[in-house]
Amino acid sequence: MTDLNSNKAAVLGGGSFGTAVANILAANGFQVDLWMRNEKTIEDIKQERENKQYLPGVKLHDNIQATGDLESAIKDSQVLFYAVPSKSFRELVERTQGLVVPEQMLISTTKGIEPEGFNLMSDILKGTFPSNPIGVISGPNLAKEIGQGQPAATVIGSKDKRVRDFIQKSLSCNFFRVYANADMYGVELGGALKNIYAVITGMAAALGFGENTKATLITRSLAEMSRFAVSQGANPMTFLGLAGVGDLVATCVSPLSRNYRVGYAVGKGETLEQAVEALGEVAEGVNTVRYIYHEANEQGIYMPLASALYAVLFEGAEVSQLANSLMTGEYNTDVEFSLPRGA
Ligand SMILES: NC(=O)C1=CN([C@@H]2O[C@H](COP(=O)(O)OP(=O)(O)OC[C@H]3O[C@@H](n4cnc5c(N)ncnc54)[C@H](O)[C@@H]3O)[C@@H](O)[C@H]2O)C=CC1
Ligand SMILES: O=C(CO)COP(=O)(O)O
Question: Which HAMAP family match (predicted)?
Fold first, then answer.
Protein backbone atom coordinates (compact mmCIF):
# COMPACT_ATOMS: atom_id res chain seq x y z
CA MET A 1 0.00 0.00 0.00
CA THR A 2 1.19 3.48 -0.86
CA ASP A 3 0.97 6.17 1.83
CA LEU A 4 1.36 9.67 0.44
CA ASN A 5 0.70 11.37 3.79
CA SER A 6 4.11 10.48 5.09
CA ASN A 7 5.96 13.76 4.46
CA LYS A 8 8.45 11.88 2.36
CA ALA A 9 10.10 13.23 -0.78
CA ALA A 10 12.56 11.79 -3.26
CA VAL A 11 15.30 13.51 -5.21
CA LEU A 12 16.52 11.35 -8.07
CA GLY A 13 20.08 12.30 -8.99
CA GLY A 14 22.90 13.08 -6.57
CA GLY A 15 24.64 15.88 -8.50
CA SER A 16 25.11 19.42 -7.29
CA PHE A 17 21.58 20.68 -7.82
CA GLY A 18 19.77 17.53 -6.64
CA THR A 19 21.80 17.67 -3.44
CA ALA A 20 21.01 21.38 -2.90
CA VAL A 21 17.27 20.76 -3.40
CA ALA A 22 17.35 17.76 -1.05
CA ASN A 23 18.90 19.90 1.68
CA ILE A 24 16.11 22.50 1.48
CA LEU A 25 13.36 19.87 1.51
CA ALA A 26 14.98 18.17 4.49
CA ALA A 27 15.30 21.42 6.43
CA ASN A 28 11.60 22.01 5.71
CA GLY A 29 10.71 18.78 7.49
CA PHE A 30 10.60 16.22 4.68
CA GLN A 31 12.22 12.83 5.05
CA VAL A 32 14.24 12.90 1.84
CA ASP A 33 15.59 9.94 -0.06
CA LEU A 34 18.42 11.23 -2.24
CA TRP A 35 18.78 8.52 -4.85
CA MET A 36 21.99 8.11 -6.79
CA ARG A 37 23.68 5.36 -8.74
CA ASN A 38 27.21 5.64 -7.40
CA GLU A 39 27.66 3.30 -4.41
CA LYS A 40 30.84 4.97 -3.25
CA THR A 41 29.17 8.40 -3.12
CA ILE A 42 26.30 6.88 -1.14
CA GLU A 43 28.73 5.43 1.42
CA ASP A 44 30.68 8.70 1.59
CA ILE A 45 27.49 10.70 2.20
CA LYS A 46 26.39 8.27 4.90
CA GLN A 47 29.70 8.62 6.72
CA GLU A 48 30.64 12.23 6.08
CA ARG A 49 27.16 13.85 5.73
CA GLU A 50 28.54 15.74 2.73
CA ASN A 51 28.45 15.21 -1.06
CA LYS A 52 32.16 15.83 -1.47
CA GLN A 53 32.22 15.32 -5.21
CA TYR A 54 29.33 17.56 -6.26
CA LEU A 55 28.58 19.94 -3.40
CA PRO A 56 31.69 20.11 -1.22
CA GLY A 57 31.61 22.13 1.97
CA VAL A 58 27.85 21.83 2.48
CA LYS A 59 26.67 19.83 5.48
CA LEU A 60 23.73 17.60 4.63
CA HIS A 61 20.65 17.68 6.84
CA ASP A 62 19.97 14.67 9.05
CA ASN A 63 16.62 14.12 7.29
CA ILE A 64 18.43 13.13 4.10
CA GLN A 65 19.09 9.48 3.41
CA ALA A 66 21.41 8.71 0.49
CA THR A 67 20.27 5.54 -1.22
CA GLY A 68 20.78 3.40 -4.31
CA ASP A 69 17.38 1.74 -3.92
CA LEU A 70 15.12 3.46 -6.44
CA GLU A 71 11.99 1.53 -5.47
CA SER A 72 12.16 2.44 -1.79
CA ALA A 73 13.11 6.05 -2.62
CA ILE A 74 9.95 6.46 -4.69
CA LYS A 75 7.58 4.54 -2.44
CA ASP A 76 5.38 6.85 -0.33
CA SER A 77 7.06 10.03 -1.62
CA GLN A 78 4.60 12.86 -2.18
CA VAL A 79 6.89 14.42 -4.75
CA LEU A 80 9.73 13.21 -6.94
CA PHE A 81 12.39 15.61 -8.25
CA TYR A 82 14.16 14.35 -11.36
CA ALA A 83 17.61 15.97 -11.17
CA VAL A 84 19.91 14.38 -13.75
CA PRO A 85 21.43 15.84 -16.93
CA SER A 86 19.11 15.89 -19.95
CA LYS A 87 20.97 13.14 -21.77
CA SER A 88 20.11 10.72 -18.91
CA PHE A 89 16.61 12.02 -18.24
CA ARG A 90 14.56 9.59 -20.35
CA GLU A 91 16.59 6.63 -19.13
CA LEU A 92 15.88 7.61 -15.52
CA VAL A 93 12.18 8.27 -16.21
CA GLU A 94 11.88 4.83 -17.81
CA ARG A 95 13.54 3.22 -14.79
CA THR A 96 10.88 4.79 -12.59
CA GLN A 97 8.01 3.39 -14.70
CA GLY A 98 6.08 0.82 -12.67
CA LEU A 99 7.27 2.41 -9.41
CA VAL A 100 5.45 5.75 -9.66
CA VAL A 101 1.76 5.98 -8.69
CA PRO A 102 -0.57 8.50 -10.41
CA GLU A 103 -0.96 10.80 -7.36
CA GLN A 104 2.76 11.51 -7.03
CA MET A 105 3.92 14.94 -8.20
CA LEU A 106 6.77 14.78 -10.69
CA ILE A 107 9.09 17.77 -10.96
CA SER A 108 11.98 18.25 -13.38
CA THR A 109 14.97 20.37 -12.35
CA THR A 110 16.77 19.68 -15.63
CA LYS A 111 17.70 22.48 -18.03
CA GLY A 112 18.09 20.78 -21.35
CA ILE A 113 16.45 19.38 -24.48
CA GLU A 114 16.17 15.85 -25.86
CA PRO A 115 17.31 15.90 -29.50
CA GLU A 116 15.06 13.20 -30.95
CA GLY A 117 11.66 14.80 -31.34
CA PHE A 118 12.95 18.01 -29.74
CA ASN A 119 11.36 17.14 -26.39
CA LEU A 120 11.64 19.11 -23.18
CA MET A 121 11.89 17.14 -19.95
CA SER A 122 8.25 17.84 -19.09
CA ASP A 123 7.31 16.27 -22.45
CA ILE A 124 9.14 13.11 -21.42
CA LEU A 125 7.40 13.08 -18.02
CA LYS A 126 3.97 13.73 -19.57
CA GLY A 127 4.49 11.10 -22.25
CA THR A 128 5.45 8.48 -19.69
CA PHE A 129 3.11 9.45 -16.84
CA PRO A 130 0.04 11.09 -18.46
CA SER A 131 -2.03 10.98 -15.25
CA ASN A 132 0.51 12.50 -12.87
CA PRO A 133 0.68 16.16 -11.84
CA ILE A 134 3.82 17.59 -13.44
CA GLY A 135 5.97 20.70 -13.00
CA VAL A 136 9.43 22.13 -13.58
CA ILE A 137 11.59 24.38 -11.45
CA SER A 138 13.94 26.87 -13.03
CA GLY A 139 15.55 30.17 -12.11
CA PRO A 140 18.84 31.76 -11.04
CA ASN A 141 19.88 28.79 -8.94
CA LEU A 142 23.61 28.20 -8.94
CA ALA A 143 23.77 25.12 -6.75
CA LYS A 144 26.83 26.16 -4.78
CA GLU A 145 25.26 29.44 -3.65
CA ILE A 146 22.04 27.68 -2.68
CA GLY A 147 24.04 25.09 -0.76
CA GLN A 148 25.64 27.94 1.18
CA GLY A 149 22.23 29.40 2.04
CA GLN A 150 22.63 32.61 0.03
CA PRO A 151 19.27 34.25 -0.75
CA ALA A 152 17.85 33.23 -4.12
CA ALA A 153 14.56 32.45 -5.83
CA THR A 154 13.16 30.01 -8.34
CA VAL A 155 10.00 29.47 -10.38
CA ILE A 156 7.66 26.52 -10.23
CA GLY A 157 6.18 26.18 -13.70
CA SER A 158 3.06 24.03 -13.83
CA LYS A 159 -0.41 24.15 -15.31
CA ASP A 160 -1.67 22.49 -12.13
CA LYS A 161 -2.37 24.87 -9.25
CA ARG A 162 -1.98 22.07 -6.70
CA VAL A 163 1.58 21.53 -7.90
CA ARG A 164 2.39 25.24 -7.80
CA ASP A 165 1.01 25.61 -4.28
CA PHE A 166 2.67 22.45 -3.00
CA ILE A 167 6.10 23.34 -4.35
CA GLN A 168 5.88 26.92 -3.11
CA LYS A 169 5.19 25.56 0.36
CA SER A 170 7.68 22.72 0.28
CA LEU A 171 10.72 24.52 -1.12
CA SER A 172 10.41 28.01 0.34
CA CYS A 173 12.57 28.85 3.32
CA ASN A 174 14.33 31.87 4.78
CA PHE A 175 16.90 31.96 1.96
CA PHE A 176 14.93 30.46 -0.93
CA ARG A 177 11.73 31.86 -2.39
CA VAL A 178 9.51 30.12 -4.93
CA TYR A 179 7.40 32.07 -7.44
CA ALA A 180 4.65 30.51 -9.56
CA ASN A 181 4.05 30.49 -13.32
CA ALA A 182 1.48 28.49 -15.31
CA ASP A 183 3.58 28.73 -18.50
CA MET A 184 5.51 25.53 -17.81
CA TYR A 185 6.96 25.35 -21.30
CA GLY A 186 8.26 28.94 -21.15
CA VAL A 187 9.84 28.38 -17.74
CA GLU A 188 11.52 25.24 -18.98
CA LEU A 189 12.74 26.76 -22.24
CA GLY A 190 14.18 29.73 -20.34
CA GLY A 191 16.34 27.37 -18.28
CA ALA A 192 17.49 25.34 -21.27
CA LEU A 193 18.19 28.21 -23.67
CA LYS A 194 20.13 30.51 -21.34
CA ASN A 195 22.92 27.92 -21.15
CA ILE A 196 23.79 28.70 -24.78
CA TYR A 197 24.28 32.37 -23.97
CA ALA A 198 26.27 31.64 -20.82
CA VAL A 199 28.81 29.83 -23.01
CA ILE A 200 28.94 32.91 -25.25
CA THR A 201 29.37 35.40 -22.40
CA GLY A 202 32.11 33.18 -20.96
CA MET A 203 33.89 33.53 -24.30
CA ALA A 204 33.34 37.30 -24.28
CA ALA A 205 34.89 37.51 -20.82
CA ALA A 206 37.90 35.51 -22.01
CA LEU A 207 38.33 37.94 -24.87
CA GLY A 208 38.41 40.82 -22.38
CA PHE A 209 35.28 42.65 -23.49
CA GLY A 210 33.86 45.23 -21.11
CA GLU A 211 30.49 45.87 -19.57
CA ASN A 212 28.80 47.49 -22.59
CA THR A 213 29.55 44.42 -24.64
CA LYS A 214 28.37 42.05 -21.91
CA ALA A 215 25.12 44.00 -21.38
CA THR A 216 24.47 44.09 -25.12
CA LEU A 217 25.14 40.37 -25.40
CA ILE A 218 22.86 39.48 -22.49
CA THR A 219 20.04 41.68 -23.75
CA ARG A 220 20.23 40.41 -27.33
CA SER A 221 20.43 36.88 -25.93
CA LEU A 222 17.13 37.53 -24.18
CA ALA A 223 15.63 38.75 -27.45
CA GLU A 224 16.86 35.66 -29.25
CA MET A 225 15.79 33.10 -26.67
CA SER A 226 12.35 34.62 -26.20
CA ARG A 227 11.90 34.75 -30.02
CA PHE A 228 12.60 31.03 -30.19
CA ALA A 229 10.46 30.18 -27.16
CA VAL A 230 7.48 32.15 -28.43
CA SER A 231 7.71 30.27 -31.74
CA GLN A 232 7.28 27.09 -29.66
CA GLY A 233 4.18 28.38 -27.89
CA ALA A 234 5.70 29.98 -24.78
CA ASN A 235 4.45 33.27 -23.34
CA PRO A 236 6.97 36.11 -23.96
CA MET A 237 6.14 37.63 -20.56
CA THR A 238 7.68 34.58 -18.86
CA PHE A 239 11.06 35.85 -20.06
CA LEU A 240 10.72 38.98 -17.93
CA GLY A 241 10.73 36.78 -14.85
CA LEU A 242 13.22 34.73 -12.87
CA ALA A 243 13.24 31.84 -15.31
CA GLY A 244 14.11 34.26 -18.15
CA VAL A 245 16.05 37.40 -17.22
CA GLY A 246 16.88 36.05 -13.75
CA ASP A 247 18.56 32.86 -14.81
CA LEU A 248 20.15 34.44 -17.89
CA VAL A 249 21.86 37.11 -15.80
CA ALA A 250 23.03 34.73 -13.06
CA THR A 251 24.47 32.24 -15.51
CA CYS A 252 25.98 34.79 -17.89
CA VAL A 253 27.96 36.64 -15.21
CA SER A 254 29.07 33.88 -12.87
CA PRO A 255 32.24 31.81 -13.07
CA LEU A 256 30.30 29.30 -10.93
CA SER A 257 28.28 28.49 -14.06
CA ARG A 258 29.64 25.41 -15.81
CA ASN A 259 28.43 26.74 -19.16
CA TYR A 260 30.20 30.06 -18.62
CA ARG A 261 33.36 28.18 -17.63
CA VAL A 262 33.34 26.07 -20.80
CA GLY A 263 32.93 29.24 -22.88
CA TYR A 264 35.73 30.96 -20.97
CA ALA A 265 38.10 28.03 -21.47
CA VAL A 266 37.38 27.84 -25.22
CA GLY A 267 37.79 31.63 -25.41
CA LYS A 268 41.24 31.19 -23.86
CA GLY A 269 42.23 28.71 -26.52
CA GLU A 270 41.28 25.29 -25.15
CA THR A 271 39.46 22.88 -27.43
CA LEU A 272 35.84 22.09 -26.59
CA GLU A 273 36.85 18.56 -25.64
CA GLN A 274 39.53 19.82 -23.23
CA ALA A 275 37.13 22.30 -21.67
CA VAL A 276 34.37 19.73 -21.13
CA GLU A 277 36.78 17.12 -19.83
CA ALA A 278 38.33 19.54 -17.32
CA LEU A 279 34.88 20.54 -16.06
CA GLY A 280 33.85 17.01 -15.02
CA GLU A 281 30.23 18.12 -14.62
CA VAL A 282 27.44 18.75 -17.08
CA ALA A 283 27.42 21.89 -19.28
CA GLU A 284 24.06 21.49 -20.99
CA GLY A 285 24.55 24.46 -23.36
CA VAL A 286 27.06 22.54 -25.49
CA ASN A 287 24.43 20.08 -26.68
CA THR A 288 21.53 22.52 -26.48
CA VAL A 289 23.12 24.86 -29.02
CA ARG A 290 23.52 21.93 -31.41
CA TYR A 291 19.83 21.02 -31.24
CA ILE A 292 18.61 24.63 -31.29
CA TYR A 293 20.78 25.50 -34.27
CA HIS A 294 19.21 22.74 -36.37
CA GLU A 295 15.69 23.38 -35.11
CA ALA A 296 15.96 27.14 -35.72
CA ASN A 297 17.29 26.53 -39.24
CA GLU A 298 14.49 24.10 -40.00
CA GLN A 299 11.85 26.47 -38.70
CA GLY A 300 13.44 29.64 -40.14
CA ILE A 301 13.92 31.33 -36.75
CA TYR A 302 16.56 34.07 -36.74
CA MET A 303 19.18 33.24 -34.08
CA PRO A 304 22.49 34.88 -35.02
CA LEU A 305 24.17 34.37 -31.63
CA ALA A 306 23.31 30.68 -31.35
CA SER A 307 24.41 30.19 -34.98
CA ALA A 308 27.73 31.91 -34.31
CA LEU A 309 28.35 29.77 -31.24
CA TYR A 310 27.56 26.65 -33.24
CA ALA A 311 30.10 27.73 -35.87
CA VAL A 312 32.78 28.26 -33.21
CA LEU A 313 32.15 25.01 -31.32
CA PHE A 314 31.52 22.65 -34.23
CA GLU A 315 32.71 24.22 -37.47
CA GLY A 316 36.11 25.60 -36.51
CA ALA A 317 35.16 29.29 -36.72
CA GLU A 318 37.31 31.74 -34.75
CA VAL A 319 35.97 32.87 -31.35
CA SER A 320 36.39 36.47 -32.52
CA GLN A 321 33.58 35.86 -35.04
CA LEU A 322 31.11 35.99 -32.15
CA ALA A 323 31.57 39.75 -31.98
CA ASN A 324 30.95 39.96 -35.74
CA SER A 325 27.68 38.12 -35.37
CA LEU A 326 26.57 40.66 -32.80
CA MET A 327 27.54 43.61 -34.98
CA THR A 328 26.73 42.51 -38.51
CA GLY A 329 23.32 40.86 -38.27
CA GLU A 330 20.25 42.23 -40.00
CA TYR A 331 18.94 45.60 -38.77
CA ASN A 332 16.43 44.80 -36.11
CA THR A 333 14.05 46.36 -33.63
CA ASP A 334 14.98 46.53 -29.94
CA VAL A 335 12.00 44.75 -28.39
CA GLU A 336 10.19 42.87 -31.11
CA PHE A 337 7.11 42.22 -28.96
CA SER A 338 6.66 45.99 -28.88
CA LEU A 339 7.82 46.84 -32.45
CA PRO A 340 7.79 43.73 -34.69
CA ARG A 341 10.91 42.84 -36.67
CA GLY A 342 10.96 44.52 -40.07
CA ALA A 343 8.38 47.15 -39.05
N1 LIG B 1 24.16 22.82 -10.72
C2 LIG B 1 23.37 23.87 -10.83
O3 LIG B 1 23.72 24.99 -10.40
C4 LIG B 1 22.02 23.70 -11.44
C5 LIG B 1 21.75 22.67 -12.31
N6 LIG B 1 20.52 22.57 -12.88
C7 LIG B 1 20.25 21.51 -13.84
O8 LIG B 1 20.08 20.29 -13.16
C9 LIG B 1 20.44 19.18 -13.99
C10 LIG B 1 21.38 18.31 -13.23
O11 LIG B 1 22.49 19.09 -12.99
P12 LIG B 1 23.52 18.95 -11.79
O13 LIG B 1 22.93 18.37 -10.59
O14 LIG B 1 24.14 20.28 -11.67
O15 LIG B 1 24.53 17.96 -12.51
P16 LIG B 1 25.92 17.40 -12.02
O17 LIG B 1 26.81 17.37 -13.19
O18 LIG B 1 26.36 18.12 -10.80
O19 LIG B 1 25.53 15.92 -11.59
C20 LIG B 1 24.82 15.05 -12.40
C21 LIG B 1 24.36 13.88 -11.54
O22 LIG B 1 23.51 13.04 -12.32
C23 LIG B 1 23.97 11.71 -12.19
N24 LIG B 1 23.60 10.96 -13.38
C25 LIG B 1 23.99 11.17 -14.65
N26 LIG B 1 23.45 10.25 -15.46
C27 LIG B 1 22.71 9.42 -14.66
C28 LIG B 1 21.91 8.28 -14.90
N29 LIG B 1 21.79 7.77 -16.13
N30 LIG B 1 21.29 7.69 -13.86
C31 LIG B 1 21.45 8.19 -12.62
N32 LIG B 1 22.18 9.28 -12.32
C33 LIG B 1 22.81 9.88 -13.34
C34 LIG B 1 25.47 11.84 -12.00
O35 LIG B 1 25.99 10.65 -11.42
C36 LIG B 1 25.53 13.02 -11.05
O37 LIG B 1 25.29 12.63 -9.74
C38 LIG B 1 21.07 19.83 -15.26
O39 LIG B 1 20.15 19.81 -16.32
C40 LIG B 1 21.36 21.26 -14.84
O41 LIG B 1 21.28 22.16 -15.94
C42 LIG B 1 19.53 23.39 -12.55
C43 LIG B 1 19.73 24.44 -11.68
C44 LIG B 1 21.01 24.70 -11.10
O1 LIG C 1 21.30 26.67 -14.19
C2 LIG C 1 22.15 27.08 -13.46
C3 LIG C 1 21.96 28.27 -12.61
O4 LIG C 1 20.64 28.68 -12.58
C5 LIG C 1 23.45 26.41 -13.42
O6 LIG C 1 24.18 26.79 -14.53
P7 LIG C 1 25.34 25.86 -15.06
O8 LIG C 1 24.71 24.57 -15.47
O9 LIG C 1 25.92 26.63 -16.20
O10 LIG C 1 26.30 25.68 -13.92
Answer: NAD_Glyc3P_dehydrog (MF_00394)
